[in-house]
Design brief:
The protein is an alpha+beta fold. It folds into two domains: about 180 residues, Ribosomal Protein S5, domain 2 (2-Layer Sandwich); about 150 residues, 2-Layer Sandwich (Alpha-Beta Plaits), CATH 3.30.70.890. The chain is globular, with a radius of gyration of 20 Å. The protein is built from nine helices and 14 strands.
Length: about 350
């Protein structure tokens, strides 16, 4: 590979995503035990700037929101070192990385997904600049998704806007364990402006990291049944996203969320990540849906905070419901307003 550029910098912003079908349990080198589907967000982003210069003797430097973060710096350093097979030029360059989030920490928003996807996109852009050759767009994003996956499984899906699927499945011929695949062009119009209100029950750091949570599935008594359930839900969700059946969408999404937490409660060691207020919110959401026929449903990641999803056409009914019925159970009454996003953007320098 001929080096046409010795030094420079690239910047990308990339979204977090919320999984509708959960990835929980991995094998090999960051490969999923079951397929997953997510919706990328619009406002919950990580912005990353990667500056490079040749033959530096200094170690990689990393700043998060202007400050050193030694634990994440170590994780990034290890991640970069393991990429030499995919980016042959990396050993010849010194890297400085800085990133910032548009959302607060520990809010039920997957920060590793947005962080690792934005970094992966920066690395792919750096490769283009050094080589002086632009990749075909589909190849660029596929490689970025592949690289992001090596840092955080869910990050593979954040490379795409709207809905993305990751993990091999007979029900989607384009699917792969190695990288995510966009699914938005197949989705029904009702999902095109979907809203996500992130209800903040607690901002405390979660008791178990995602990596540790995935490891708990290795000897889990219900692992086989879970992976079979996830495959069935994945196939059903593909159909629902095509048909626009909101009743089925909500049923599958909520079942997935509660299955995830059931697995955590049944693991060894056991973790109960739901809080009393989480359960109260779930009851109130279901009661509101039953009484109003508004198609609003919830999902959760591995924490107590709820993502409330609904079509934009229902916003005038859902927002007053949140303010009057749910906000009293939220930490400082706070929630984050977000919606389906169009995916990462390269930031012009």
């Amino acid at each position: 590979m001929k080096n046409n550029k010795n030094s420079g910098s690239v910047s990308w912003e990339s979204p977090s995503n919320i999984a509708l079908i959960k990835y929980w349990g991995k094998k090999g080198n960051q490969l999923p035990c079951n397929p997953s589907i997510s919706m990328s967000l619009k406002n919950s982003l990580t912005r990353t700037k990667l500056t490079y210069k040749p033959n530096g003797k200094e170690p990689l430097s990393f700043l998060f929101e202007g400050k050193k973060q030694s634990s994440f710096e170590q994780r990034i350093t290890k991640f970069i070192k393991n990429l030499s097979d995919h980016f042959k030029f990396l050993t010849d360059y010194q890297l400085s990385i800085s990133s910032e989030n548009t959302f607060p920490h520990s809010t039920g928003i997957a920060s590793s997904a947005s962080a690792m996807s934005s970094l992966a996109l920066c690395l792919c852009s750096m490769e283009e600049e050094i080589a002086g050759v632009k990749m075909v767009e589909d190849e660029f994003y596929r490689k970025a998704s592949f690289i992001a996956r090596l840092g955080s499984g869910s990050a593979s899906r954040s490379v795409y806007g709207g809905f993305a699927a990751w993990g091999e499945s007979n029900s989607f011929s384009k699917s792969s364990d190695e990288y995510a695949v966009p699914f938005s062009k197949y989705t029904h119009p009702v999902f095109q402006d979907f809203q996500d209100a992130i209800l903040l029950v607690s901002s405390k750091k979660k008791e178990v990291s995602s990596s540790a949570g995935h490891q708990l599935m290795e000897n889990h008594p219900y692992a086989t049944a879970r992976f079979a359930q996830a495959n069935k839900h994945f196939e059903r969700m593909l159909g629902v996203l095509r048909s626009g059946d909101l009743e089925d969408f909500i049923e599958i999404m909520e079942n997935e969320a509660l299955s995830l937490h059931g697995l955590m409660m049944n693991s060894t060691p056991s973790f109960t990540l739901l809080k009393p207020n989480t359960l109260e919110l779930i009851e109130r959401i279901r009661s509101f849906r039953l009484g109003s026929n508004v198609p609003v449903g919830f999902t959760l990641d591995a924490g107590p905070n709820i993502h409330l999803l609904y079509p934009k056409s229902e916003k005038e009914r859902v927002v007053p419901f949140i303010d009057s019925e749910l906000s009293q159970f939220l930490e400082n009454g706070k929630y984050i307003v977000d919606e389906k996003g169009e995916g990462p953007q390269k930031i012009k320098m």
